[in-house]
Write a structure and sequence with these properties.
By secondary structure, the protein is an alpha/beta fold. It has twelve helices and ten strands. The strands form two sheets. Strands 1-2-3-4-5-6-7-8 form an eight-stranded parallel barrel, surrounded by five helices. Strands 9-10 form a two-stranded antiparallel ribbon. Helix 3 packs parallel to helix 4 and helix 11 crosses helix 12. The longest helix is centred in the middle third of the chain and has 18 residues. The termini are far apart.
Amino acid sequence: MTTPVNRLRPRRSCLAVPGSNPRFLEKAQGLPADQVFLDLEDACAPLAKPDARHTIVKFLNEGDWTGKTRVVRVNDWTTHWTYRDVVTVVEGAGQNLDCIMLPKVQDAQQVVALDLLLTQIEKTMGFEVGKIGIEAQIENAKGLVNVDDIAAASPRVETIIFGPADFMASINMKSLVVGEQPPGYPADAYHYILMRILMAARTHDLQAIDGPYLQIRNQEGYREVARRAAALGFDGKWVLHPDQVAAANEIFSPSQEDFDHAELILDAYEYYTSEAGGKKGSAMLGDEMIDEASRKMALVISGKGRAAGMQRTSKFEAPEA
């Protein structure tokens, strides 16, 4: 009997690391990012890609990635590199790999193709079939239009990721600053895109991840964009520089106050719906009425806090009879 794969891994901070840079690959192991993805796509020059595959295999097998989700971003299916990226990396380091990230996904068939290739490699190598997940990156208009089908294309899919730079280019958005609002538009130009991705992800119990913010020296700019995604319900965001890791971990974790409150709601609801608590469907927690809907909301906050390793600082006290 195989152990079910946990597809909802912590991904508050998803660190991009060029697969062709051994120094960065070494440094990434010591950073507190939830996820590290070793990149064979945009961060690798075309002439560097073949050697980078083998460098990634070496670092996955020999490095210490304890506590991190280990991902490799391959090239997209419109290039001639993709199949060799997947075969070399998965055959060479499949037992030390959690997911393959597929960029520029435009339709469900591209996810199915990757699923089939992964299955063949797993069977050939004697790996557990289905263990390696897929992260699908949405980077153009066609991908967004097809995002529901993409999210449902394979049980391997774990996340839907927004890729802002290519997306902005694909729709002719009038901005050269990735993730920033285009001049002349008075509202949030990314709201529909982010919500569309979020709805598809949540429909299929997947995580939604916001993409990079390229002005790596602009910490407040990064925080502002990250807070926007976190407020909507996204699970995490890419980080391109070590200085962005702490901000992502903080912003995509609950505050201590919210975590404590969520834990109190769960304890109180469990008590009040029990025999001892009077089998009530709703009850008062201080000045707040709580019910089943409150419990569901609290579970989300509590789950994120527990995944982040948070510890509660308050305790529910049942009222005296």
